Amino acid sequence: MIGRPGAGTIHHVAFRARGAEEQLEWRDRLRAAGIAVTPVIDRQYFTAIYFREPGGVLFEIATDPPGFAIDEPEAALGRNLMLPDRYEPDRARIERLLPPLSA
Predict the structure, then answer these.
(1) What is the pLDDT of residues 75-88, one digit of tens each?
(2) Looking at CB atoms within 10 Å, which of 14, 20, 82, 92 has the fewest?
(3) 74 Cβ contact list (under 8 Å, min separation 6)
(4) Which residues are CB-neighbours of 26 under 8 A, at least 6 positions away?
């Protein structure tokens, strides 16, 4: 039985690649094994490739670089909501939907 989105299911499992070269090696290995894998996708803070296992679970292999400190100092991480450029037009709506946080 294939899971449906909701409580008790996962969206995807992510693995780390130290950089683009290692990620491309994994992409080549997956393709050689007959597994359909996406092209490298730029997610602003990292790049990622995706593939599914036979049961439908989505796997991601994402790079460390460039990292989350590309648009703010490392000491300030987590203090402000930083969004990839493609989500900036929706900032007001996203901020309204987020619950307040306290540290």
Answers:
(1) 999 888 999 888 99
(2) 92
(3) none
(4) 17, 49, 61
Task: Give strand ranges (E) for the chain.
Answer: 12-17, 41-42, 46-52, 58-66
Contact between 62 and 9 under an 8 Å Cβ cutoff? The reply is: no
Statement: residue 22 has pLDDT above 90: yes
Q: Give every strand in the sheet of 12-17, ordered side by side.
A: 12-17, 58-66, 46-52, 41-42
| pTM (2 d.p.) | 0.78
Residues 6+ apart with CB under 8 A from 80: 72
Cα–Cα distance measured from residue 67 to residue 3, given in angstroms and rounded to the nearest whole number: 32
